[in-house]
Amino acid sequence: MRIVQIALTEEQKADLMNLARHDKRAHVRLKAQAVLAVGQGKTRSLVAQVLGVERRAVGRWVQSYLALGAASFGIKKGRGRKAQVRVEEIGKYLRQTPTHFGVPRTRWTLGTLREVTPCLRGMSESGVWRALARLGYRYKRGQPVVHSPDPAYGEKRGLYYRP
Q: Could you tell me which of 11, 57, 15 has the C-alpha nearest to residue 34?
């Protein structure tokens, strides 16, 4: 095992300490803690063991921090699993009533939307809800009819009043 020590300036130490304690993103806090510990003389193996990550990951974090600074802690665009849900497809279905697709309902439910929309098949209802929320759609249930406590409510309402 090769022991390589890095020298951090006081400014870098303060920056890493601030990131490790206050950043909202957990992966940034973890990487900052790792680099700070290596900068304080701890071995990469020990840091990896304490933080529960691989030793090589700690080495990569240290190298990228030395090259790019704190900007290297972010997740790069294009990483991770690609979304199955397609915005155009969801919009096509949501902008029409379920009766157009052979469902005997007048309003969408999460279950019926999942059954009809190909990109949502196989997802749980909570998964459909989260996908809709990510795309900016809000699922709202129908509200019950509210009756006024006013005794003359029926008269005021006129012909449309149904007790």
A: 57
